[in-house]
Amino acid sequence: MSVADCRARFRDLHAAEQLFVMPNPWDVGSARLLAWCGFEALATTSQGFAWSLGKLDQSVTRDELVAHVAELAEATDLPLNVDSERCYPDDPGGIAETVALLAAAGASGFSIEDYDPATGAIDDVELAAERVATAAGAAHNLPDPLVLTGRAENHIRGVDDLDDTIARLIAYRDAGADVVYAPGLTDLDQIAAVVTAVGVPVNVLGLPSGPTIAELASAGVRRVSTGSLLATAAYAALMAGARELLTDGTSRYGAQGVDREALQGAFDPPP
User: Fold this and answer.
1) Cβ(216)–Cβ(19) below 8 Å
2) Mind listing the pLDDT tens digit for each residue in 116-152?
3) 258 phi/psi in degrees, rounded to 5
4) What is the mean pLDDT of residues 92-118?
5) CA 7 and chain centroid, separation
6) Model confidence pLDDT, tens digit, residues 66-99
7) What are 208-234's pLDDT values in tens digits?
8) In what order do the strands lie in the sheet with 179-181?
């Protein structure tokens, strides 16, 4: 599909009255494998991508992210959402320029979050909402608009305050966010309360301690993403194999290899 087609498809997925799962690859290979599995959309993971560069999260440059988005957007025919952290407000051109660069790279959507790694704290809600509004203006004025997700980071940054989270998500909705997202929520009743309060599509991070996809669908969640969990699992398998080699001198880890049919289908598809 063309970039315009991908963006239209992404908007349609959010407009439909059903949940869709949007996993987060960290490189071209993982993106193609996930597309081969049959998902309808993909998203980048800031942490997983940072690891692939040998960096920690929150240290990827805007240029590195934009190049990564261009690679993943080209790798599959699926809409691509971008974990763009704070949208680089301090880089040249600020948030609006970041949105323009992501659009030119082929993104179908992106997110903006309210955690500032420089201070180690959550931004003031008024400032965060202003930044959402800037991002919304840049995203929605494109010929083929991008889907904007406003993120409230409370629950993965040690602030367990559902009322504040809901107030923030409503502020981001009112500032122009098409989707809202509070990563870290695992209680189904709390998730349902968010869905009821905000009145726009809600993204939920799928977590080991969280509800099932079916339970999230029953609560009215529109979109589920995986964040860095798939990358974490892949890197954990690598570390387990490495430790086995060093401690036991065996290679039993190799018995769990990836399905050859999947590799053939994802990496060498028929014309």
Assistant:
1) yes
2) 999 999 999 999 999 999 999 999 999 999 999 999 9
3) -70, 150
4) 98
5) 16
6) 999 999 999 999 999 999 999 999 999 999 999 9
7) 999 999 999 999 999 999 999 999 999
8) 20-22, 223-225, 202-205, 179-181, 147-151, 109-113, 80-83, 42-43
Residue at token pair 């993104």: 107
| Unique residue bearing structure tokens 């087609």 | 5
Buried/exposed code over 43-55 (b: 16+ C-beta within 10 A; e: otherwise): bbbbbbbbbbeee
The Cα–Cα gap between 40 and 66 comes to 22
pLDDT of residue 1: 85
32 in Cβ contact with 76 (< 8 Å)? yes
Burial of 243 per CB tally in 10 Å (0-12, 13-18, 19+): exposed
Amino acid type, 168 = R
Nearest Cα neighbor of 138 from 181, 182, 88 is: 88
Predicted structure pTM score: 0.97
Integer Cα distance of 135 and 235 in angstroms = 33
Helices (H), 38-80: 46-52, 62-75
